[in-house]
Amino acid sequence: MDDKFAAVGEAMPRLLEGLRVTVELTILGAIAAFILAVILGLAAASPTKVWRIPARVIIEFFRGTSLVVQIFWFFFVLPLLGIDLHPLVAGVLALGLNYGAYAAEVVRGSIQSVPSGQWEATTALSLGPVQRMRRIIFPQAWALMIPSLSSLLIHLMKGTAIVGYITLADFTFQLDQVKRVSGTLFTYGIVGMLGYFLFALLLTLAMNLLERQAKHKLGQGTSLRRILSPAPAPTTRAGGIQ
Amino acid sequence: MIEFRDVEKAFGDNVVLHDLNFSVQQGDRVTLIGPSGSGKTTILRLVMTLEEATDGYIFVGGEPLTHEERGGKRVERSKKDQKRIRQRIGMVFQQFNLFPNMTVLENIIEAPVHVLGQSKAEAGEKARLLLDKVGLSDKADAHPTSLSGGQQQRVAIARALAMDPEILLLDEVTSALDPEIVGDVLAILRNIADTTDITMLIVTHEMQFARDVSNRVLMFDGGKIVEEAAPDVMFSSPKHQRTKDFLHAVLGDADGTIGTH
User: Fold this and answer.
1) In chain B, count of helices (H) and strands (E)?
2) pLDDT digit string (tens) for A126-165?
3) Residue A156 falls within a domain, yes or no?
4) For the domain that residue A190 is a member of, what is the CATH number?
């Protein structure tokens, strides 16, 4: 057992380097996915066909094809057409498009779940479509979409494990290397599981805080500041009624 | 100020309003009464452009609202024209519909700032006057969800008035409130009716309020006006049997009238 720890300890710099690549891909992929999700989600929620139909086609296409095939496509097929992408760019693009398509459905669904009374109030106040979305509907939809986006983010993080196929040395790739010295069970079973799990836990906690803050803005639940403050929470007054 | 000309509204095969004609003069306070499903709320929603008439024309201040007749055809007006006319109209809803992502003050200044282009200071000053008027000057920075239903509805009234509407539509504004709060909200509306010349179109089940505030009452049934009269006439000596039945049902009086209580 000791030699296994020693082997992992020795390989630690490589594992950390791999973890860094995984974190990088996760964050960049998530940013790309989110931007895409908002654009596609808004278009898919639009009453205008000119926006809705292309959005639907893109969403269905990228949801309906495998992430592995997409990543191969960006890395192996595009060069045949004369477009060379850095592996990191190919990875981020594939993750962004694939999970962005899923998240777009979350964005669309949340926008359409904002009660009709809110939409009607914006009409009664003559707000234009852009103001209505930006100032009233989206901020409310945001609180609704976070839980689903949060689980998609964890999926995306785990999805990064396939970039080893396109020459990126991520956490899984490094585990594979270390396995040769320290054994499959120990490396994958303990180091690998723990590494991904802790990262996922961190992401979940961050998203939970984001959700709390978003809900507080809508007058639901206590504020983040109060939760994090060391002083005992005062008996609820300004927090509002749920 | 408002004119319905041969207006028809159907939801699928269900015709809610049929060949409706009526008009409301500037400064009029018109109450629409009638059993639920008689099309009263649909009329307010048509004026607010929340629904679109399936036929006929609606005029606001002499101008066609959503559709106009051009070369013998019924054509939709441009979004820009519709928005310009819509700005003259305000509406208060049964469910208040305050924006939960904003404070009370932000709710009120939202449209004046972002639609009318007022400065935040200017809109804020006016909002505080309006909050004072509805008795909530201490709630400017409160969150809508921390307010009672009656308070939320008063904020909603202030929010509608902040746009300086020429027409105010009141859609069962007290129906979602506890009975003991209804009086406060009605007192505020009565005060607005007394101190402004805003044209009001009111759908309510509060017959006493209808009697106090309105100068005309329209009785609806099955999407048609069955009777029209001044409130004292309508409530003391209704002519049509449908009106008598309806008033009897809502007032619970033996003779179906509201007298001096």
Assistant:
1) 9, 12
2) 999 999 999 999 999 999 999 999 999 999 999 999 988 8
3) yes
4) 1.10.3720.10
Q: Looking at residue B236, what is its pLDDT?
A: 87
Number of domains observed in the structure of chain A: 1
Per-residue pLDDT tens over the stretch B133-188: 999 999 999 999 999 999 999 999 999 999 999 999 999 999 888 888 888 899 99
Q: What would the two tokens of residue B96 be?
A: 């208040």
pLDDT at A224: 66
Q: What is the spatial order of strands in the sheet that B29-33 belongs to? A: B89-92, B167-171, B199-203, B29-33, B216-221, B224-229
> What SS3 class is residue B16?
strand
Structure tokens at B42: 């649909």
A83 belongs to a structural domain: yes
Q: Dump the DSSP string for chain A.
A: -HHHHHHHHHHHHHHHHHHHHHHHHHHHHHHHHHHHHHHHHHHHH-S-HHHHHHHHHHHHHHHHS-HHHHHHIIIIIGGGGT----HHHHHHHHHHHHHHHHHHHHHHHHHHHS-HHHHHHHHHTT--HHHIIIIIIHHHHHHHHHHHHHHHHHHHHHHGGGGGGGT---HHHHHHHHHHHH-HIIIIIIIIHHHHHHHHHHHHHHHHHHHHHHHHHTT-S--HHHHH-SSPPPPSSTT---
Q: From CA A190, how far away is CA B178, in angstroms rounded?
A: 60
> Are the beta carbons of B99 and A124 separated by less than 8 Å?
no
CB contact under 8 A, A219 and B143: yes
What ipTM, to 2 d.p.? 0.91
Contact residues, chain B, for A126 at CB < 8 Å: 83, 86-87, 111, 115, 163
Mutate to test the interface with B, among A48, A125, A133, A213 (most CBs of B within 10 A): A125
Domain-located, residue A59: yes
**Is 50 exceeded by the pLDDT of residue A13?**
yes
Taking a contact as any Cβ pair under 8 Å apart, which residues of chain B between 61 and 90 contact chain A? 83, 86-87, 89-90
Contact yes or no for B95 and A140 at CB 8 A: no
Residue A140 token pair? 């409310």
Residue A165 included in any domain: yes
Q: Residue A212 belongs to what domain range?
A: 2-228
